[in-house]
Amino acid sequence: MRTRYKTINNEAFHFVTSTTVDWIKVFKNKKYYNILTEAIKFYQAQKRLEIIAYVFLPNHFHLIVRSDELVNIMKLIKAYSAKEIIKLLKSDGEYKILELLRINKKEYKTHCNFQFWQEGFKPKEIIGEKMLRQKIDYIHYNPVKLELVSEPFEWKYSSAGFYFSGEEGVIKLDLDY
To answer: pTM (2 decimals)?
Structure first.
């Protein structure tokens, strides 16, 4: 993953967005979401990534995270999840999606047949409580805006359940900041 984004303040939380190539809706069921979830949880368990909010959607995800090595961790998460999801797409016979991933691959990517994620991940440093609240609300209301659910806490792949009612989601939050 080539990226021109660099984090400036490793002590700060960052709002991160990553999308599938051409916004292809790959995440159709829990098997695909679980791969992304497990990749993120792996680095969280190693204490290399702190997460205070998240949402995973059919073609992108948002995180509010902190890491001393954010650029590298995001690269590793995206590389692993892409490889494993492409394997699963093949075994599930999802040939239309695979074809879209193939035709949307950048020409210079000669080492692979498919491109899963768009390059980069657009980290935005969280500056102040007001910005943090705005980004958390944005993340949590994204599934509502996309008409996937009526209320934010109904979306399983989000931290909204924790913020609305204290229910732990698919990823345990690091709220000791």
So the answer is: 0.90
